[in-house]
């Protein structure tokens, strides 16, 4: 369950939305348990539900709101480990949804190209190109932020 929650967080970068995604995923799994119980790799099946649920949620109009403004509390003392993590999340968030999903599934979840393609419902070539382009974009943006 915690792995699903962390994967959801990497996709959406919001713990509350990640919890919602996991809840929706579990509900969908329960609703289709007869089909799911016959699947060879249940975790891949559940991961596919999670990613597709996130992609569906991204298309909803109320999810397109932009956050702005300053926080009311004072900023904490910077910590390099936290800044690195926050920087990584910001870089991931800048990727388009399907490209981010490919990078998270291939790099964080350590799935094969074929497993990722099955979850995203696309070809292996698409997974390879999306992952490669996502990594190139992440590296370029990381280089830009370290230079400035």
Automatic annotation (TrEMBL):
NCBIfam families: sigma70-ECF (TIGR02937). Residues 87-138 form the RNA polymerase sigma factor 70 region 4 type domain. It comes from Amycolatopsis orientalis (Nocardia orientalis). It holds the Pfam family Sigma70_r4_2. Keywords: DNA-binding, Sigma factor, Transcription, Transcription regulation. This is RNA polymerase subunit sigma-24. It comes from the Bacteria. Residues 5-63 form the RNA polymerase sigma-70 region domain. GO terms for biological process: DNA-templated transcription initiation. GO terms for molecular function: DNA binding; sigma factor activity. Belongs to the sigma-70 factor family. ECF subfamily. InterPro entries: RNA_pol_sigma-70-like (IPR039425), RNA_pol_sigma-70_dom (IPR014284), RNA_pol_sigma70_r2 (IPR007627), RNA_pol_sigma70_r4_t2 (IPR013249), RNA_pol_sigma_r2 (IPR013325), RNA_pol_sigma_r3/r4-like (IPR013324), WH-like_DNA-bd_sf (IPR036388).
């Amino acid at each position: 369950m915690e792995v699903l929650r962390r994967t959801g967080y990497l996709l959406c970068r919001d713990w509350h939305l990640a919890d919602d995604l996991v809840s929706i995923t579990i509900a969908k799994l329960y609703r289709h348990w007869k089909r799911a119980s016959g699947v060879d790799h249940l975790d891949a099946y559940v991961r596919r539900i999670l990613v597709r649920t996130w992609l569906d949620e991204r298309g909803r109009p109320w999810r397109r709101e932009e956050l702005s403004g300053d926080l009311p509390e004072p900023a904490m003392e910077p910590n390099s480990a936290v800044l690195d993590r926050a920087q990584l999340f910001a870089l991931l968030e800048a990727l388009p949804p399907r490209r981010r999903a490919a990078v998270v599934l291939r790099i964080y979840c350590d799935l094969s190209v074929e497993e990722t393609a099955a979850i995203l419902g696309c070809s292996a070539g698409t997974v390879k190109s999306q992952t490669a382009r996502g990594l190139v974009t992440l590296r370029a943006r990381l280089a830009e932020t370290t230079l400035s």
